[in-house]
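Comment on both lines for my students:
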Amino acid sequence: MKSAIALLAASVIASTAFAATGATEKLPSGVVVQHITQGTGPQPTADDVVRVNYRGTLANGTEFDSSDKHGGPATFPLGRVIPCWTQGVQKIKVGGKAKLTCPAATAYGEKGVGAIPPNSDLTFEIELLGIGK
């Protein structure tokens, strides 16, 4: 009987962990956060400085930016980036990875910027490495 209970407990723990990874959350702004790897650390607030690895792509899959292009992880105040990032990265725990799908209105909107045309929906894969103040 003990082994059956242990097996059941292990099954529940494993299914809970599986549910957390791959979970998708749609925010009121339309930003979609798909958790790829669940982190175990704290979640940042908009007032925090975050350290991340990231890769940004247009809707057609074309990469327009990445932390690798800049020599490694990026560090910046979370409240001073596009709304999609400010909202979405707050949903990731340190050590986690997520895919953010950003409607144009939460990215660069009608103006676009650089290689990003106006009214572009964007996708970012983000790994949250750390939080500072």
Summary: Residues 104 and 120 are 5 Å apart (CA to CA). The beta strands are 24-26, 32-37, 49-58, 63-66, 74-77, 97-102, 122-132. Residues 1-19 have pLDDT under 50 and may be disordered. Residues 22-130 form a domain with the Chitinase A; domain 3 fold (CATH 3.10.50.40).
